[in-house]
Structures are given as C-alpha cells and as structure tokens.
Amino acid sequence: MLRTSRRLLVLPVALAVGALAACSSGGSAPDASGGAEGGVLRVGTEGTYSPFSFHDADGDLTGYDVEVVTAVADELGLDVEFSETTWDSIFAGLEAERYDVIANQVTVNDERRAKYDFSEPYTVSTGVAVVAADNDAVTSLADVAGLTAAQSATSNWSQIATDAGAKVEGVEGLTQAVALLQQGRVDVTFNDDLAVLDYLQQSGDESVRIAFETGDTVEQAFALRKDSELTAQVDEALATLRADGTLAQISEKWFGEDVSQ
Predict the structure, then answer these.
(1) With 0-12 CB in 10 A as exposed, 13-18 as middle and 19+ as buried, what is 75?
(2) E strands, 13-141, where?
(3) Closest CA to 187 of 231, 225, 233, 130
(4) Each residue's pLDDT tens digit, 39-78
(5) CA–CA dist 68, 42 (Å, integer)
(6) Most CB contacts within 10 A, which of 96, 161, 214, 221?
C-alpha cells in the first residue's frame, strides 16, 4: 500500500553555493554525523523534473521520487521536509548540510561513489537520445560527434554526450533542452528514457522524437553525505517497501510498470 508521511514541508533553496554554505535556515539544525535531526528527513530535489519531482496543477510538489522518499521517511517514522534547487546546485546543498539526502534520480557512478554515500537503487532505466522529429541523420552514438548537445552540466548524460564527441550546451533540465531542439539551436539531448517518455506522453509534443537508446542501463538511488548514519536506515526502509509491494505500486502509478528493480 502507498504510505503517507505525517508531515510534508517544501522550502525554497538559495541557489548560490556561498549562501548554501553560510546558512541553514528552516527545518532542524544539521547533524554532523549525517543522521536525521529532530525527527525530520530533509530532502533536496529539483521540483522541475517531471515525472520524478515537479509541481502539479494545484502547485503541490509530487512525482515518483517525491513519493518514494516520502514512503521511506514514513517507514522510518520521520516527517519529511523538501528543499528545492537546480540540479547543478543540488550536491552543493548536500555538502553544505542543507539537507540529508538527495531524491532526484541521481545516477550511481564511480565518481559520485567516491564523494557520497548511495542507498540501494530504487529506479533502473535506459539512456536515450532525443532529436528534432525531422532529423534522420542521428541514429547512433557515432553520429553525435561534432554535434551540439543540450545537457545539465554535471549530469551523467552530459558525460555521455561529451564522450560521444558532442559539444555540450548547458541547460537546467529536459524542458529547456527540448526548447533548444525545437529552435534548432542544438542537435540532440540525452536523458533518462522514463523522463522522455513521460514528457512525450504528457505534452503530446511531436516536434521531437527518440532517435536511439544509448545502451546504458543506469541505476538511480538516494545520495547522502559520506559515511552518513542514515544510509543503512534508508536501505532498510527501501527493502521493506520493496518487499511489501509499495515500491512496485508507486512505480506502476507513474509508469505503468515496476521500474524499481
């Protein structure tokens, strides 16, 4: 069954790294050991990344990641407090102890593992390349060399584009990347297939299309500060939610299938 947290708060986050490091307004004081303080799990997320973390027509924060981390908090007996920021600032907020965990489809890779703790994965997905609908020239990674790709600068998709020989133009998310494709200012954008399929389904946009799958199967997990006391607790909660069918139910609500394993 779906679980509802006892209390949910949404707070804006200052985008400047200096501001993140200098203050910790709102919520409980950070715990240097990495554990939740004052019975609150503080969560960093974008709030602009449908269907994972976004605002619905009523302005409420919702999405797959929002529901999963809320279920985790409820399983741990914690209230949940969300702080919203851009992707390129999200890890700075974690390091500055503005929040305890990032819930925003963070792809697990070796570089990030060296700096942060990760929970067990709660999403498995595939990378895809998106192009303008009338672009028949891009059918594989080999065709991307020399082209311009719209990507969030610090995302794993940006690295895939760079490795394929593309010039990367920085954007804040998929919506902006699609807009640049529509304007003919970029040639391609890489992203998670679940995010792209949801965008195409919800928007009905026929000006762009999926050109090919990258062949990368990626796992997404919650990111926490290194050696956080919360990591083992979050993993235990996820194991319970997987075993009792909650993760599968949340997945099926948003994607029509279980994407959690």
Answers:
(1) buried
(2) 40-45, 54-55, 61-62, 79-84, 101-107, 116-118, 123-132
(3) 130
(4) 999 999 999 988 999 999 999 999 999 999 999 999 999 9
(5) 14
(6) 161
